[in-house]
């Protein structure tokens, strides 16, 4: 057997698993026998630590009732800030620049309400054509709330191929009409990483505020938001961070903006020592906590207490290193085993530009995903013809990647996908 054949063998994949320094973390997650879960970029798996943390919060509720706000292992009154401090290393921020609150879209509304201050010629918001729809809905509604026509004042950078954005194209559109830029750190379809550092520098050179949607990057790649000077960022915590369905989101505000009045004011944006004075004039916190609005969703935040312990132990740089190894291996297997079956990889080949998942295009994508699920492989379908495959560093193995590609090869060779309709389900 040649060296090349050895590389694409199951024995080779098992050898990679043997050398994997993160392999022990798999035992910390609930995995189903016979199922290969490759959709952690949509919803991460439940960890035992997260389950324990939820039980602990429930016990505090049961035993302490309202005193749980200021007593117990994790007093709820300070939980949003505490979790923000635990998230800080994952986004490269100072401890008080991050707070766990709201949802990704709700936090975007808050941040645009706070940082979009049109004046003179600067009335427009710059986004892109490939971003997740919810961000675009929020930006349009914020423009309209300020009395601007969204179709004229939301500028969306085009993609030449429908999958990849060019940093130069984005910079070219940073004109003196742009007030705020909002971009994804990682594109949710292709997995492309934008050059956040360069884009931030270019925006600031033009006196433009810039923020990033980290939904598909947090917990998967390192960030240096404070060092880069990013003005704000927002994200969900239920994908790579395994915070559970509907988990509370998070936001970052650079310390240079501390003291800025929140656009959407609420009780939990108060200074802690003033909050229960019940005054009708808000005394806002002087850190990221000022951008909270309502009472923290304690039961939805609880899983993060346990989940973030795993990230602290594993380290984001080791996670990123294994993630790249997994997607590199997946790249190679697909190109070797599926080259005659009509798949086209639309993710960047460059490790510098590639996030934690691969995006495959195929004209039969919806029915192929259904066939994979019938075989115990859980991918993610994206209309009209995309398949996202996300091997997650903390709980997926190289052997699972090998099995996935070979199961997919069998589906294509046997044409078992033809048993299914080529249309998405209610939730893709």
Automatic annotation (TrEMBL):
Keyword Hydrolase part of the UniProt annotation: yes
Binding site for pyridoxal 5'-phosphate: 105, 132-135, 213, 216, 238, 267, 295
Keyword annotations from UniProtKB, A to Z: Hydrolase, Pyridine nucleotide biosynthesis, Pyridoxal phosphate
Uppermost EC category: hydrolase
Molecular function via GO: kynureninase activity
Keyword Transport: no
Residues modified as N6-(pyridoxal phosphate)lysine: 239
Stored HAMAP family: Kynureninase (MF_01970)
Function text: Catalyzes the cleavage of L-kynurenine (L-Kyn) and L-3-hydroxykynurenine (L-3OHKyn) into anthranilic acid (AA) and 3-hydroxyanthranilic acid (3-OHAA), respectively.
PANTHER family named among the record's database cross-references: KYNURENINASE
Protein name in the entry: Kynureninase
Organism: Aquibacillus rhizosphaerae
């Amino acid at each position: 057997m040649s060296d090349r054949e050895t590389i694409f063998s199951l024995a080779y994949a098992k050898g990679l698993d043997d050398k994997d320094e993160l392999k022990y973390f798999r035992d910390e997650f609930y995995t189903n026998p016979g199922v290969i879960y490759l959709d952690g970029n949509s919803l991460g798996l439940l960890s035992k630590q997260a389950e324990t943390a939820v039980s602990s919060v429930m016990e505090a509720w049961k035993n302490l009732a309202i005193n749980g706000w200021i007593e117990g292992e994790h007093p709820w009154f300070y939980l949003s800030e505490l979790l923000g401090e635990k998230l800080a290393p994952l986004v490269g921020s100072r401890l008080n620049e991050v707070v766990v609150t709201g949802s990704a879209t709700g936090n975007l509304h808050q941040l645009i309400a706070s940082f979009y201050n049109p004046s003179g010629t600067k009335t427009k918001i710059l986004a892109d054509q490939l971003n997740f729809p919810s961000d675009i809905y929020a930006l349009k509604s914020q423009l309209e709330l300020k009395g601007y026509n969204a179709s004229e004042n939301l500028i969306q950078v085009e993609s030449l191929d429908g999958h990849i954005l060019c940093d130069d194209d984005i910079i070219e559109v940073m004109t003196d009409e742009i007030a705020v830029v909002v971009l994804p750190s990682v594109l949710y379809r292709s997995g492309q990483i934008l050059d956040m550092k360069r884009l931030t520098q270019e925006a600031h050179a033009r006196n433009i505020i810039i923020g990033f949607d980290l939904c598909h990057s947090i917990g998967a790649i390192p960030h240096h938001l404070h060092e880069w000077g990013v003005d704000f960022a927002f994200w969900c915590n239920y994908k790579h961070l395994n915070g559970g369905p509907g988990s509370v989101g998070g936001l970052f505000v650079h310390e240079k903006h501390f003291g800025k009045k929140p656009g959407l004011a609420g009780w939990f944006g108060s200074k802690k020592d003033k909050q229960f004075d019940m005054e009708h004039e808000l005394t806002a916190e002087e850190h990221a906590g000022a951008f909270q609005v309502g009472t923290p969703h304690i039961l939805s935040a609880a899983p993060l207490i346990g989940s973030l312990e795993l990230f602290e132990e594993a380290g984001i740089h080791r996670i990123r290193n294994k993630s790249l190894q997994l997607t590199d291996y997946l790249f190679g297997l697909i190109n070797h085993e599926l080259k005659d079956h009509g798949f086209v990889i639309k993710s960047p080949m460059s490790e510098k530009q590639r996030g934690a998942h691969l995006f495959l295009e195929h004209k039969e994508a919806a029915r192929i995903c259904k066939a994979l699920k019938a075989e115990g492989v859980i991918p993610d379908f994206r209309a009209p013809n995309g398949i996202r495959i996300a091997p997650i560093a903390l709980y997926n193995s190289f052997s699972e990647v090998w099995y996935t590609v070979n199961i997919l090869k069998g589906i294509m060779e046997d044409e078992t996908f033809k048993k299914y309709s080529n249309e998405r389900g209610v939730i893709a």
